[in-house]
Write a structure and sequence with these properties.
elongated, alpha+beta, 215 residues, 29% strand, 4-stranded antiparallel beta sheet, 5-stranded antiparallel beta sheet, 50% helix
Length: 215
């Protein structure tokens, strides 16, 4: 009977750990010119927060990112096209994540971001402190779930980068096609002008020759 009980406890630990981990989904937000958008996430001491962001479109693809703590203390500030930042929460309270587009006067920007919070396992650690094997299994499952989350976020960033490069390539191809049509049109116009000029030139020469013959 020991083996089934161990299996049940293992599945229980796996289920509770996966439910406990908050796997962030990617969100998209449009930041208007000279605008700012802020989001709030509750943090608990002992947890770990991670922010990932990527500017999908707009201007030079850069954005101001500002993360502040519960008492407006600065945690992270940067102006980049994309980035990732993780930190350990030292104070309980609401953490603010702001994306600012104040330096752009005309162009709005689209930003993809994720905010992930890994919840502590203190309750389960206390419950299973006498079961070292189960404790190690729980820690392994937690690390595995976090690794899966990191892979998922990396895939989302790669997908966004692929869309950006595809959009750039399509725009370049469209400009090349338009420029080729423009050059072909200019060449055709110049050819027609030369044809009419040469035709009028020979016509004038022919008229002068006929006049000299009659004289």
């Amino acid at each position: 009977m020991a083996a089934p009980c161990t299996l049940c406890l293992t599945l229980l630990v796996l289920l509770t750990t996966l439910l406990q981990l908050h796997i962030a989904s990617a969100f998209y937000v449009q930041i208007d010119a000279r605008g700012e958008e802020c989001f709030f996430e509750e943090g608990k001491r002992g947890t770990r927060m991670a922010l990932s962001f990527e500017v999908v479109q707009g201007g030079f693809l850069d954005i101001n990112v500002d993360v502040t703590g519960p008492y407006n203390d600065p945690v992270y500030q940067v102006r980049e096209m994309s980035g990732r930042y993780a930190f350990d929460v030292s104070q309980d309270g609401s953490y603010k994540f702001c994306f600012s587009n104040h330096k752009s006067s005309l162009t709005p920007k689209m930003v993809m971001f994720t905010i992930d919070t890994s919840q502590p396992l203190d309750t389960y650690h206390a419950r299973l402190e006498e079961e070292s094997l189960h404790f190690q299994l729980e820690e392994t499952i937690k690390q595995l779930a976090q690794a899966i989350m990191a892979v998922k976020q990396e895939q989302e960033h790669m997908a966004v980068r692929e869309k950006i490069h595809q959009s750039i390539n399509e725009d370049i191809n469209r400009r090349v096609v338009v420029w080729s049509f423009f050059e072909a049109t200019i060449l055709l116009i110049m050819t027609l002008c030369q044809f009419y000029y040469l035709r009028s030139f020979f016509k004038v020469r022919r008229t002068e020759y006929q006049g000299d013959s009659m004289a």
